[in-house]
Design brief:
595 residues, Pectate Lyase C-like, Immunoglobulin-like, 3 helices, 58 strands, globular
Length: 595
Amino acid sequence: MKKIAYLFLLICFTANVKAATSITASSVSGHWTLAGSPYMIYNDIYVDYGSVLIIDPGVDVVFYGAYGMHVNGSLYATGATVQPITFHANDTTGWYNTSTAAGSWKGITFGIYGIPSTDSSSFQFCKVYDCKTNALALFYRNLKIDNSTFFHNSGFVVNVYLDTFNKYEMSNCAVYNNTSSVTCFTNLGNVNIHNCSFHDNASRTNMLSVNKGNLLLNDNLFYQNNQTDSQNTTTIDIEYSNAVVMGNKVHDNTSEFDGAISAYYSNVDIVGNYVCNNLSLINMISGSSCGSTQGGGGIRLSAEGDTVNKYNYTIRNNIIANNDARYAGGAIYIIGANANIFNNQIINNTAYNGGAIHMFNNVSSSGHRCVKVKNNLFYGNITTNFALPNPHANLEISSGDTIEYEYNWTENPFYTDNINVGFGYNFLLGDTTKNIIGTDPRMVSPTSSAGVTVNASTSNFFLLPASPCIDAGDTTGAAPYSVDYARNTRIYGSRIDIGAFEFNPTAYATLNTNIPVPEKTISVYPNPANNIIFVSVPGAKGKIELQDISGKQIIGKNVTNTLTSFDIHALPRGIYFAIWNDGSGSKTAQKILVE
C-alpha cells in the first residue's frame, strides 16, 4: 500500500514538473493556460501586430534574466481575485539595486513610442513585481488596469505616453513598497485614476506625476510615501494639465520641497480631499531653501513666470490639518497663481512662515492675480518663526497682488491674522468685518494641538449643532460645489456653512451617534419626553424650531419668553432637534428623544 501511495505522489510530482512551459521564441501568441504554468521566459518576447495572447487566471510568468514583454498586438491578461496572474523575475537578488542588471526583469511594454495603435488589451487581477525598469509602460494606445498590484519595483511602476485621443484608466490597484518613481505620466490624453492605494513607497522623484494631460484623480489613498532623495519632489505632481482632484485621502507623506499635492501651470479643482499629516522637509534655517519658491506642507500651487495669467486653481471642501512645512505655508503655498480657496477646514497646520497659507504673488504684467479666501474655518495654525509678531496668524503675504478675505471663521481680526513681509499686498477686496472672530468654532473632535506628529486620522472635524459656522458663509462669487466633504447636499438651511462640512441634523446624527453633546446654552426637559417639552433659552428673542432627523421643521415658535412649551404627543417616536436662532444668526441646538 505504501508503494502505491509513493508511486501516486511521484506521478503527481512528475506531472507538475512537466506542466512548466519554457518560452525561447521571441514571438508569442495564443493561449497560456494554468495547465502550462509556470511560463519560464528566457529571452525578450513580443506579441506582434495583429497577434493576440490570452493569459488565464492563476498563470505564473517568470523571467529568467533581464528580459521583458513587448505588446504590439493585444494582451488579455485577466486573472481573478483568488487566482491573480503573476509577472516577476526568477532571481530577486538585489531587486532594488539599479547599478546591476541581476535580480530583475524589464517589465511589460504596450506599444512603441511615437507610433499610435488601435490594438486593445486587458490587464486585470495581475501582480507585477521585482522590476528594475518600467514595470508597465504604455505608448500611444488605450489601456485600463484594474485590481492589480505593483510592488518591489525600482523603476517607474507605470510610465504612460498618450496622444490627444488616448485614454488610460487605473482602478482598484495597490502600489506599495517600490523604491523609485512610483507612477509617471507624460501625456496629452485622458487619465483617470480612482479607488487605488499608493503607500509605503520611497521614490526618488514625484510619486505620481501627470504632465500635459486631462486628469481625474478621485477616491484614492496616498499615505506613508517618502520622496526625499532629490529636490522639487512631491507626492502628487500635476503640470500643464487640466485636473480634478476629488475625494482622495493624502496623509503621512514626506517630501523634500513641495506640498503633498503640487500643481504647476495648470487648471485644477481640488475638492473634498483629506490632506493631513504631510511634511515638507526643506527649511530656511539650514540654508538649504531656494528663497520663497518652495513650500506647502499640504498643497502647493504655482504659475510663477506666467505672462498670460491663464492658470486658475480652486481649493474647496477639503480637510487640511496638521501638515508641516519647514519653510512656508503649512497648509497651502501659492506662488504667482490665481487661487480660489473656499469652504475648507484648515486646522492645526505649522510652518516656519505662514502657518496656514503663504502667498507670493507678484503683479502680472498682463493683469492682476487674485487669491480669494472665503468661507474657510481657520483654527490652531501656528507660525514657528517666533521673530514674527503673531505666531497664530494664519496668512503670510510675502508679495501679494489682490487678496479677497471675508466670511471666514478665525481666531484673529484680519489685520492681525496676516503677516505682511516684503512688498505685502496691493489690493484688499471683500468685507473683512464679515469674518467671524472667536475662540472655538465648535467641531466634534478636532486634533488637540498643532503639528505633523498629532494624528488627524482619529479626529472628527464635523460641526456641532451650536457651531457659529452654521449658516454663516456667503456664496457670492464663491462657486460652491454641489456637495460638502461628506458628500451631503452643500447648502442646507438659509445659507452656506463655513468650512468643509454642511451641518444638517441627519448627518450629525449619523456621524456622531455615540459622541456626547457638549454643554448647551439651551436646555430641554423632560428629555426623553412623550407629551410636552419645555425649551429654556437665555434670552426672550428669536425663534425655536423642532426639526426631525431629516432637518424638516415640525413646529416653529417665536420666542416671547425664556421658557417655551411644545405639545409633542402626536409626534412619532424618534430623535428630534430643538434649534434656537437668537435673531443674530447664531444657532444653538439640543437633541430630543421622543418615546
